Amino acid sequence: MDPNPSQAAMRLLLLMFAMTATRAAAMSSSGYDDERALVAFKAKISGHPGVLASWNQSSSHCSWEGVTCSRRYRWRVVALDLSAQGLAGTISPAIGNLTFLRSLNLSFNGLQGEIPPSIGSLRRLQQLDLGVNMLTGVIPRNISRCMSLRVLCIYSNKGVQGGIPAEIGSMPSLAVLELANDSITGTIPSSLGNLSQLTILSLAINYLQGSIPAGIGNNPHVTFIQLSLNNLSGLVPPSLYNVSSLYLLSMAGNKLHGRLPSDLGKNLPSIKDIGIGINLFSGALPLSLTNLSTLQAIDATSNSFSGVVPSELGRLQNLEVFQMDNNMLEANNEEQWKFIASLANCSRLQKLELGCNRLKGKLPSSLANLSTNLQLLQIPSNKISGAVPLDVGNLASLQLVDLSNNLLSGAIPESIGKLTQLNELYLSSNNISGVLPSSIGNITSLSILSVHANNLQGSIPPSIGNLSKLSTLDLSSNKLTGFIPNEVGHLSSISIDFDLSYNLLEGPLPSEVGGLVNLKELILSGNKCWN
C-alpha cells in the first residue's frame, strides 16, 4: 500500500494524461496524413470554379467542401464527393493515402490523365465513380485489391483503353460494374462469372470481341446486363435466358447469331427490356414470348427473324415498345395479321415498328384500336394493301406515322386531322387516291408531310397554310390540279424541301411564295405552264 495517497493519485493522473496525449498524437498524425493527401490532390487540380476555395488552413479539412470524416475516427476521411464540380487536371496518386476512404466520387468532371494505381491501396473503399471524365490509360489491375468495393464505375471516358482486368473477377463484394462508353478492347473475362454479388453489369459501347462468357448468366442476383454496341460474336449462352432476377438484357449492335429459345417466356419472369437489335439472329419469334408478363420493351430490329408475329401479343399487358423492323417477318392473310387486334389490349403501347419486313395482305382496320398512348407507328417498305383505317384519328397521341412504300389505296381519312400531336407523316409511294383532306390543316404541329408518288387528285387545300411548323412539304408525283393556294405563303418555317413537281397544277405562282425566306429548294417542274 502506497504510504502517500496524494502522490499515488498524482502518478495516476500523469499516467492517464500520457495515455490520452499519446492517443491524441496518433489521431492527429493520421489526420494530418489525410489532410496532406487532400492538399496533394488539390495541387493536381488545375481548374475548379471555387469549389475547392474552402480547402485551406483556416479550417479543419473535415469541413472542406466534398469531404466527410468519420465520426468514430476523427479527422479520418471516409468520403470524397466532388461530382459535377467542373474539375480539371489529373487525379493525384496521393489519393491512395486516404486509407479510411469508403466512397470516392469524381464523376461528371473534366479530369484527364491515368487512373492512379495507388487507388488499389484503398482497402476500405466501397464505392468508386470516375464516370464522365476524360481519363486515359488502362484500368489498373491492382484495383482488385479494393476487396470491399461494391460499386466500380469508370464509364464515359473514351481515353480509357486496354482490356478488362481479369482480376476484377476476384472482388467478392462487387455488385455494380459499369465500364460503358470507354474504348476497352479484348474479351469479356470469364472470371466475371465469379462475381456472386453482381447485380449490374454494363459494358456497352466499347470494342469488346469474342463470345459472352456463360458464367455471367449463372449469377443468382444479376438484374441488368448491358453489352450493346461492341463486336461480340457467337451464340448467346443459354444461361443468359435463364436468369430469374434479370429485368434488362441488352446485346444490340453486335454480331451475335442463333435462335431465341422456344422456352424464352418461361425462364425470365422479371424481364422488362430485351434489346437484341442489329445482330444476326434468325428463326421464328417464339410463341412463349407472350408469357413474359413483365415485358415493357423488345427491340429486335435488323436481324433475320422470319415467320409470323405471335398472335397473342395482347397478353403482354405492360408492353410499351415493339420494334421488329428490318427482318423477314410475314403476314399474308387475316389470320396472320391477328397480332394487330391482339395488340389493342396493350394499353401502354407507345412504339410499334414493323418496317422493311415481308408483310402482305390488307392492313387491318383494328390498327385504329391500338392504344391511345401510341406515339410512333412505322410499317414502311412492305407490300401491305388496303386503306388507311377510317378511324386512325383515334390514335390521338401519335407523333410519327410512316406507312410509305407499300400498296395502300383508298383515300386519306378526314379523321387524320384529329392527330394534333403529329410531327411527321409519311404516306409516299403507295396507291392512295382521293383528295388531300382539308382537315390536314388541323395538325399544326406537323413538321414533315410527305405524300409523293400516289394518285392524289383535286386541289391543294388552303388549310395547308395553317401548318406553321412545316419544314418539308412533298406532294410531288400525284395528280393534283388547280392553283397553288396563296396560303402557302404562311409556311414561313419551310426550310428543307417544297416539292410540288409532276402534278397537274396550273396558274401563276403566288407572290406570297417570295416570303418563304428560309426555303432552300422549290421544285415545280412537270406541271402545266405557268403564267
Distance between the termini: 130 Å
Shape: globular
Number of strands: 35
Low-confidence stretches: 12-27
Helix count equals 2
| CATH fourth-tier homologous superfamily of the domain at 30-161 | Ribonuclease Inhibitor
Q: Could you say what the CATH architecture of the domain at 30-161 is?
A: Alpha-Beta Horseshoe
User: Mean pLDDT across all residues, rounded?
Assistant: 92
CATH class designation of the domain at 30-161? Alpha Beta
Largest sheet: 20 strands, mixed
* Structural class computed from helices and strand pairing: mainly beta
**How much strand?**
15-25%
CATH topology of the domain at 30-161: Leucine-rich repeat, LRR (right-handed beta-alpha superhelix)
Q: What Rg is obtained from the alpha carbons, in whole angstroms?
A: 33 Å
Give a structural overview.
This protein is mainly β and 531 residues long. Among the domains are: 30-161, Leucine-rich repeat, LRR (right-handed beta-alpha superhelix) (Alpha-Beta Horseshoe), CATH 3.80.10.10; 283-385, Leucine-rich repeat, LRR (right-handed beta-alpha superhelix) (Alpha-Beta Horseshoe); 400-531, Alpha-Beta Horseshoe (Leucine-rich repeat, LRR (right-handed beta-alpha superhelix)). 8% of the residues lie in helices and 21% in strands. The protein has helices spanning 5-43, 338-343; strands spanning 45-47, 67-69, 77-81, 88-90, 103-105, 110-112, 127-129, 136-138, 151-153, 159-161, 176-178, 200-202, 209-210, 224-226, 231-235, 248-250, 255-259, 273-275, 280-284, 297-299, 304-308, 321-323, 328-331, 351-353, 358-362, 376-378, 383-385, 400-402, 424-426, 448-450, 472-474, 481-482, 497-499, 504-505, 522-523. The strands form 5 sheets. The protein has a 20-stranded mixed beta sheet, with no helix packed on it. A hairpin with a 7-residue loop joins strand 2 and strand 3. The protein is globular and about 90 Å long. Residues 12-27 have low confidence and may be disordered.
